[in-house]
Design a protein that fits this description.
Helix content: over 70%
Number of domains: 1
Structural class: mainly alpha
Length: about 150
Amino acid sequence: MAGKTRKKRRATGTKVPPTKSAQRQTTTASTWGGRHLGSTVALAFGCLYFISAWAEPSAGIIAGPVMILGALAYRSAKKRKLGEVKSTPIRQVVEIALLLLISVMILAQNNVLHLIETDPVPNLLIPVGAILAYLVITLMPESSVRGQAT
């Protein structure tokens, strides 16, 4: 009976509220392909890098979690900047804690300078990139953040 009523309302031109499945599709689309595509890709690559490092132990054991933590901190800061979530002190402390954890993970390695010389991507570029991305999104004016795609 509800289906017939909905069809009649559409035929007469009155507005019909969206169905639950349409609302779910909109939410899913905005999460996966909308404003947070870059951090979603970084999360996916971080997970894949970490998983692949277990097959043959490599620097991915450190770089994978660094990418994941950096993407989570970046996404949280961007959501705060866009007004999707409230900017609470707890959220900001968690973001800073994630960045500090990235720093500790890199600096706690044995002979870190040698590792940076021999394998700079997982030991220098990925952590610095994650921290810089966070700093850029937090220091960028809100109007610029609203205009960017990812």
